[in-house]
Structure formats: C-alpha cells, structure tokens
Amino acid sequence: MRGRAWLFCAFVAIALPGCQINPPPSKEITLLDDAFRPYREYATPTIRVSDHPNRFFFKLIARVDRTTGETSTLVSLVIAYEGSRMRKYKGARNDRAEPLRFYKPNRHRSCQKGWCSFDETLLIELPETDLREASESGYRLKVFARDGSGVFIAIPGGVIQRLFAKIENPASKV
Fold first, then answer.
1. What is the distance between the alpha carbons of residues 141 and 24, in angstroms, rounded to a whole number?
2. Residue at 8 is within a domain
3. Based on the structure, what is the number of domains in the chain?
4. 49 in a domain, yes or no?
C-alpha cells in the first residue's frame, strides 16, 4: 500500500505543480486568453489545504465574458483519499447555509485488493459579490458527500484580493 501512496503522491506532485499551503504573494495569477473561448480565464495557483490521508487542493477561477464583461467566479476543488468506497460529493453551501451551484464532478478510482484510491474534482460557482465582500476576511464553504460527511474549505482573503487585482489590472504582475 505504501507503494501506491508514493505513486499517487508523485502523480499529484506532477499533475498539480506549485501546490503549497498558503502560497506566497509572489505566486502570479495566470491568464488564459484563448480567442476560441467566450471568456478570459484568470486562475490562482493551486493551493494545498491538507495532507495525508485526505488531500484537498483548490484554485480560484474568474471568467470574464468577452461580450458582456460579466465575471463569474468558481472554485475548482480536488479531494483525494483512500478507502473502501467513494464518497461522491454532491453539493456545497456557503457559511450562511445557502446552496452554491455545483457542476457535475469528475471522479476517478484505482483499486487493489479491496482498498482504493479516489479523487474527485469539483467545480463550484461562488457569487462574485460575496467573494468581493470576503476579500478581507476570506470566504468559507463546505462540500457535502452523499453520506452526509463534509469538507470545510476556507479561501484566504489575500488569494481573493490578488485574483480581483489581476482582473482589474491585467497588465500587473500580481
């Protein structure tokens, strides 16, 4: 089992470069400006929230519509864990218990001898006004699995501030 855990960690290290707990301010916001997409996408670096046995990674994303200029904000959350069954996360709520729009998750499983490694990638829409209001204190949400268990995520205010600073001034090095 240690071999599988090492292999999984190696995969995560390659697949999610730059993962750190509380990234330093020097980490830049990336811009994806593909003319074939109807929006420009800004994204924070991937941030590791916790470590073994449950690993949580997230990045904050903002999509600015090319036609209307409207901004939609999302959090992409990867939850990786081991166990005998998949948790199947199905919904998210903010700290006022209001439901957040939850897109269909991507789920992967790798099993050997009755024990499995799972990862679920979730995309959750966050109201832009709530996120802007939380730029000082941070934004909190909880993601729920079918069995009722949940994962608490706190997005630091500094991450939110850097994302919106880059949107407002795309030429800056934020």
1. 22
2. yes
3. 1
4. yes
Q: Does the residue 173 lie in any domain?
A: no
The reported pTM is 0.79
Phi, psi torsion values for 166, nearest 5 degrees: -70, -40
Provide CB contacts within 8 A for 139, sequence distance 6+: 94, 126, 130, 131, 154, 155, 160
pLDDT one-digit tens code per residue, 143-168:
999 988 899 999 999 999 999 999 99
What is the residue range of 115's domain? 2-168
Kindly state the DSSP code that residue 102 receives in the 8-state scheme: B
Asked if residue 137 has pLDDT above 70, the reply is yes
CA dihedral 41→45→50→51, nearest 10 degrees, is: 120
DSSP code string of 72-92? EEEEEEEEEEEESS---EEEE
